[in-house]
Design goal:
By secondary structure, the protein is mainly beta. The chain has no helices and ten strands. It has strands at residues 2-6, 9-12, 17-24, 32-38, 45-50, 57-59, 67-72, 77-82, 91-99, 102-114.
């Protein structure tokens, strides 16, 4: 499966942004899909995930109700709605998929939050 992340850009603090992760090649419904991010000089960190099947969602502690992950299986796309953005949310956001123990990474999309 190939993953394509999009939706990044520049936004002021307090604003919102919606990221999309689109899959091609295989049906996304059977994959656990997640978002990670990496800020300059920092390690990549977990942001959010949605599990295959039931669709249980998970979030990093720093999210604190600001982000929402969702999936549209018909469109083979997973979304990350980010609200109340802070300058510390500035990072490259990566889309990730996993099935049968195999990891798939998409290219990153840059999100820049200005104060």
């Amino acid at each position: 499966v190939q993953l394509q992340a999009s939706g990044g850009g520049s936004v002021q603090a307090g604003g919102s942004r919606r990221l999309s992760c689109s899959a091609s090649g295989r049906a996304f419904i059977n994959y656990t899909v997640a978002w990670f991010r990496q800020a300059p000089g920092k390690e990549r960190e977990f942001v959010s995930a949605v599990k295959y099947g039931v669709g249980t969602t998970y979030y990093g502690d720093f999210v604190k109700g600001r982000f929402t992950i969702s999936r549209d299986n018909a469109k083979n796309t997973v979304f990350l709605q980010m609200n109340s953005l802070k300058p510390e949310d500035t990072a490259v956001y990566y889309c990730y998929g996993r099935r049968f123990g195999i990891d798939y990474w998409g290219q990153g999309t840059q999100v820049t939050v200005s104060s």
